[in-house]
Amino acid sequence: MTYTDVHRAFLQACSNHGTISAQQAYDILVGIYARYAASESVPREDAVAEVVAAINTRIYPFDQKIAYIHYDPTDTDFYVFVSLLESPIDLQQKEYTLPELHYFRALLRELTLSDDHQLPSIACLNLTNETGSDGHKALSKGRAEQLLTEWEDLGYFLVLEDKCHFGPKAIVEFEKYLNTNYADVITRCCLCNVTIFYGVRCATCPQILHKDCLKKYLRRLTNCPACKKLWSVPV
C-alpha cells in the first residue's frame, strides 16, 4: 500500500487522541478520505486495519505503534497509539511533576496487586498520601481527581461504577513494565498466551481467560481448557 496523506492524517489523529474506539477510528478514516481521497470510494471498515498496518511499518523503528485491543470491561475494540520503550512512564517526565509521576506509578502498582485489577475511587485518592518525598509536597486529592480525569481521557484508566480499572492504553503500553515489575501476580491467557488483566473466570478452577478468546474457543469445545470440566459461566 502506498503511503499517502491518508496515512499521515490518520497517524496524527491517533497520536493526538491516544486511544480511540474502533468505531471512532472508522469515522475518522471516512472523514480523512473525504478530505484527501475524495475521488476514491468510501473505505470499508476493514480498511482501518490495512491503514494501521501500513503506518506501523513506518513508525515501528521509532519505538511507536498503533495497537489494536479488545477491552473486556466494556466489550469494546480500541486502537491505541503507544510507545514501545522499556520504561514508557519516563516519557511523561517533562509533563508531570515527580509527585504526579509517583502517583501514576502507585496507581499502576495498586491496580496490579488488587483483586480483579480494580480499585474503589476513594482508594485511588488515598494513594496521594505516599506522593510526598524528597522535599516534594504530597499531591492534594483535588489534583489527584484532575489527573485521574486527564489520564482516563487518554485511555490509561477507566472508572466504572465508582471503581478504577486499567484503561486500554495502560494495558497495551505498560504490559512489559508490569510483567517486569510484578511477574509474580501477572498471568497469561492460556488460549492466546497474552497477559490477561480482565476476563472470565472458570466456575470450577482459578483459570481466567480473555472473553474474546473464550468465545472463539467455545465455538469448537465446551470444556474449560484448564480443568476440562464443562464450561458454565456465561460469556
From TrEMBL:
Keywords: Chromosome, DNA damage, DNA recombination, DNA repair, Metal-binding, Nucleus, Transferase, Ubl conjugation, Ubl conjugation pathway, Zinc, Zinc-finger. One of its GO terms (molecular function) is ubiquitin protein ligase activity. GO terms for cellular component: nucleus; Smc5-Smc6 complex. PROSITE patterns: ZF_DAG_PE_2 (PS50081), ZF_RING_2 (PS50089). Pfam families: SMC_Nse1, zf-RING-like. It comes from the Eukaryota. Its EC number is 2.3.2.27. Transmembrane segments: none annotated. It is an enzyme of class 2 (transferase). GO terms for biological process: double-strand break repair via homologous recombination. Residues 189-228 form the RING-type domain. It is found in: Chromosome; Nucleus. Its main location: nucleus. InterPro entries: Nse1, Nse1_RING_C4HC3-type, PKC_DAG/PE, WH-like_DNA-bd_sf, Znf_RING, Znf_RING/FYVE/PHD. Residues 174-224 form the Phorbol-ester/DAG-type domain. It catalyses: S-ubiquitinyl-[E2 ubiquitin-conjugating enzyme]-L-cysteine + [acceptor protein]-L-lysine = [E2 ubiquitin-conjugating enzyme]-L-cysteine + N(6)-ubiquitinyl-[acceptor protein]-L-lysine. Component of the Smc5-Smc6 complex. Belongs to the NSE1 family. This is Non-structural maintenance of chromosomes element 1 homolog. It comes from Anopheles atroparvus (European mosquito).
